[in-house]
Amino acid sequence: MSLNQVIIIGGGLAGLFSAIHLRKSNYDVLLIEKNEFPKHKVCGEYISNEILPYLNWLNLDIQSLHPKKIEKLSFSLVSGKTLNTILPLGGFGVSRYKFDNYLYNIAKETGCQIVQETVLDVVFLDEKFTISTNSRYYYSKIVLGAFGKRSNLDIKFKRNFIQNQSHWLGVKAHYSLNFPDDLVGLHHFKGGYCGVSKVENNLVNICYLANYETFKKYKSIEEYQKKIVCENPNLNKIFKNATIEFEKPLSISQVSFDKKNSVENHILMIGDTAGLIHPLCGNGMAMAIHSAKLASESVIEFLENRLDRNQMELEYTKKWNFNFKNRLKTGRRLGNLLQQEKTAAFLLKLLLVFPFLLPLIIKKTHGKPI
């Protein structure tokens, strides 16, 4: 029986960053991903600059992907009333298709073993994990869970959030559109929010989150966009002038913002598997990357016998809560506030009178450079 040092389940941002980090420290890593690379994903595709020092430490050449430098935010309500501001840290736009594939190739080049299989179960017994997939068994000292927003493993582990039905739907596509390179638009519509920003190749990513209660009344995504999303005049103008570059928009259902545990069944959860911030905060990708860094550091301390397993799990939980718990809470509160139209209108009026408050709110959902 061959025992791996670390197995990572899931090859999204968090999984790939953990693999690269651990290989940089010369640990054996096996990453199990059910999908092929490259692959488009429902995602806002905006990354806060807070993670740039970490990218530099990993020697990742993000500029080779030709990302768009984003410095400004335009926020609007359903009525079209708009507030513009400078992003405190700024960020960059790059597609998950290109970014994930770049990271996948870097992980392989550094010696990470990557297999395309579906994990069916994970069992922890006698200080080791047994991972069963659709084709074989693997064994490991450490398992990192990076299997995304909602997985069959969440059901298998009987995680609390998976017991509750979620009423959110995510939709995304790339478009040809005359849109500023340095701007991210965040536009409110009845029952949801839409993010608009440039990625590489002069394409514009339009990604929105919709409440299923408003969506289910319509026969198609196209009809919903026309009747509901485009009630916001800003979005109406955007979609009217945009030409879709996908065969059809991508969608994902049952998106949950409920609380999740960062460690379950002795698995260190990272990325969306550990917690999902509301998309209106625009910081999910940076948080996924940061969580990979935190988990990798804790794992290395365990593998170097500086922490036992219990200490490692407690340390990672503590670090995860310190960095993300309040940001997730702020995101949930903002989401609830903006679902109430009168409250949202009052909030925008307040921000128009006191514009310095918006950057402060943004800082509440973003971290410091890592």
Question: What would your notes on this structure say?
Answer:
The chain has eleven helices and 17 strands. The chain has one domain: FAD/NAD(P)-binding domain (3-Layer(bba) Sandwich), CATH 3.50.50. Strands 3, 4, 5, 10, 11, 12, 13, 14 and 15 form a nine-stranded mixed β-sheet that branches. Strands 1, 2, 6, 7, 8, 9, 16 and 17 form an eight-stranded mixed β-sheet that branches. The model has no long low-confidence stretch (mean pLDDT 89). It starts with a strand and ends in a 5-residue tail after the last helix. The chain is an alpha/beta fold. It has helices at residues 13-24, 52-57, 96-109, 152-156, 212-215, 221-227, 233-241, 284-303, 309-338, 341-353, 357-365, and strands at residues 3-9, 29-33, 46-48, 68-76, 82-93, 113-116, 119-125, 128-133, 137-145, 168-176, 183-189, 192-198, 204-211, 243-244, 250-252, 263-264, 267-269. Helix 1 (13-24) packs parallel to helix 3 and helix 8 packs antiparallel against helix 9.
